[in-house]
Amino acid sequence: MSWLSEPKKGAVRRSGIITVLDVGSSKVCCIIARLMPAEEGRALRHRTHRVKVIGIGHQQSQGMKSGVIVDLDRAEEAIRLAVDAAERMAGLTVDSLIVNVSAGRLRSETISASINLGGHEVAQSDINRVLAAGARQGLETEREVVHSLATGFSLDAERGIRDPRGMVGSELGVDMHILTADAAPLRNLELCINRSHLSVERMVATPYASGLAALVDDEAQMGAACIDMGGGTTTISVFAEGKFVWADALPVGGNHVTMDLVRGLSARLEDAERLKVMHGSALISSSDDRDIVSIHPMGADPGEQPIQVPRAVMTRIIRARIEETLEMARDKLNRSGYGGLVGRRVVLTGGASQLVGLPEATRRLFGRNVRLGRPLGVAGLPEAAKGAAFSASVGLLIYPQVAEFENRGRSGKSGIFTRATGTGGRFQRVSQWLKSNF
Known about the structure:
The chain is α/β, with parallel strands linked by helices. The chain has helices spanning 72-90, 124-138, 183-195, 206-214, 217-222, 254-265, 269-279, 311-336, 339-342, 358-366, 391-402, 427-437, and strands at 16-23, 27-37, 49-60, 64-65, 68-69, 96-101, 107-116, 143-155, 158-161, 171-182, 199-205, 224-229, 234-240, 243-250, 292-295, 307-310, 345-349, 369-372, 378-379.
């Protein structure tokens, strides 16, 4: 079990309320949920709590482009409306939340660090020290550490240790996955949330959250890639031996497919989106030349007759963009060095992944088994929120339970993450919240 959620000896796990905010390029979603202690499941063994949604609100995203805020006022309004809807449904007021981040040119690094133990038993303070030593190596000018996760410990050069606490040795080492992002997009996102009279407890990378929601434990243990295809960004994450080990992002998503249809068919934006959802496909079929779709040209008079276009024309436009996006994702995965760890398993999430034929197109390009992932292990979600589009939102709810050996921001003596998002010590409160509730 995660040491973050493991109660102190003699203590009993308590229920708690958690609020998350998924700020995407196509939608803004706020979920308020109650976490209740539960027995571990067989398929989801590392879940320490049952999650029951008590409030949900979502709005069409405004002021966002490829995961980056481009209009502060419009983005703030969308966030306010989504949070207000969730608060009304839950019957409570929110003051802080966990938010996702997909912008800022996410970059993964693997870092090793070690400290001298002097022959005594490994205590929690020693783990904190070695994690802090590794996290400091990930700090760069104008870059912020989003995650610093321990992927494995070593004790006196003996590697592969999962939990060294209580063991005796002279030197404690750790291998860490450090995920960083550009500082400016993170600060602007937090500023936008602060303007809505809310505070950010923790920022969680979208690829990490999507993988937590969509992968079962066996996939995460054996090795799998999760590709989250959103409206403005496509993120890739790799899980192996139950750990989040690599991530990257592409500034392209489902909105780019829609814009290609707008340009290629001279259609209005809302018509192009409707055609993509209702008639779009990533694969060409034999009936496409016979099937006809009606398109109202851009700038046409209301009474003007629509243009009749073979569906094959639309499919070719969609297929070109989808194949380009998937090829970019495949190349990034192969260059990362983790392509071999993935084995033969790829899971697709995100709203754009629901396009007809996308799993088959991905299977052909990647040469791996592909399935469409949906949020797992959360009760109370409305039917409309049970699809792949809400994987990142649900992953944010799961994050506090399963983030093992992550170095959380602390102010004061430890001196790490004090640059966080320009707030100095806000990340400290999430650690206190987790300890008090779990």
